[in-house]
Amino acid sequence: MSLLVLEPGIESRIVDLGRPRSRSLGVPIGGAADRRSLALGNALVGNLPDAAAMEIALKGPRLRAETNVGAVLLGAPFEAWRGDSRIEIGHSFTLQRGQELHIGGTNDGARAYLCVRGGFEGSTILASRSSLGPIKAGDVLPCAASVVGQRFCPETQWRSKDVQMVAALPGLQADWFADQDLYGHTFTVTPASNRMGLRLTGKPLKVSDREMVSEPVCPGAVQVTPDGQCIVLGVDGQTIGGYPKIAQVIQADLDVLGQLRPGQRLQFCRIAMEDAIHRDRQSLAELQEWTFRLRLSLDAFH
Asked: Which end of the chain is more exposed for a tag (fewer CB within 10 A), N or C?
C-alpha cells in the first residue's frame, strides 16, 4: 500500500504543517510553504488540514501506485498525467494499482501539493511527518488504499500577477531605513531562492553602519544584507538572525511567498496593524469555509 518514486523531480518532499512548537530548540517551522493549498487539497480528499502530503516544486516526480490511491493535485498549475490521461489541478482522481502518475512543470507559481486520502504515513519527528529532505528515486511512500470520486474546488489554482503585491508591517529595525527605500520599488526573485528564503534583487537599500546582536526571526521577515539587497525568510528559515529587519510580511500573505518563483517580480506595500489583523481573520474564515464545504460534500458523496 504505497507509491513508488520512479523519478523524484526537482524538489519534492513530504510535508504537513511543520514544527511550530519546536522553535525554542532552534528548529525551523518547516512544513508546507503554501499552507492554504495544503489545507484545501487535504479537504478535497477528506483529510484534516495537517495530513501529510507531497510538496512539489517547479518540476514534479514520476510515481507508480502499488495500490489504488485516491488523490488530488492542488496549487500552481502543474501539468500532470495519469497514464495517458491529463489531470486537472484541483480535480480529485483515483490512481489505479500499477498506474503511473507523471507530474511535469509549471509556468506559473512554484509549488503544488499531492494529497492522498488518509495522508502519507511514516515516522514522526518532533510531532511532524515533514521530511528533512527531498524524496529520492526508489523511495517507497506508504499510504492507505483508497478511492475518491471526481470532485473539484474552483478556488484552488494559483494565479500570479505581473508584479505580485505583498503586504508588510514595519520590521524591528525599520527606523534604520527610509520608507521609500522599500515600498513602491520592484524587486525580482533570484534563482538562489529556496525554502529557507527568497533572495531578491533590486535597487540596493542604503545600509546603516550600526551593529546589532542576533535576535529571533520568523518566516516573512524581510532582512537587508550588507550589500543592500533583501532576503525574505521562508518556512525553513533559521530562528535567529543578525541582519536588520526592514519589514515583516503579514500572516495572510505568507502563502504567497511559497508560490513566488525565480524571475517573479514583487513589490511590498505597507499596511497598518489593524488592517493586517482584519486580512488575517478574513483569510482564515474563507479557508475554514471552503474546507468545511469540501469535507461536507465528501460526506454527502459517501
From this structure: C
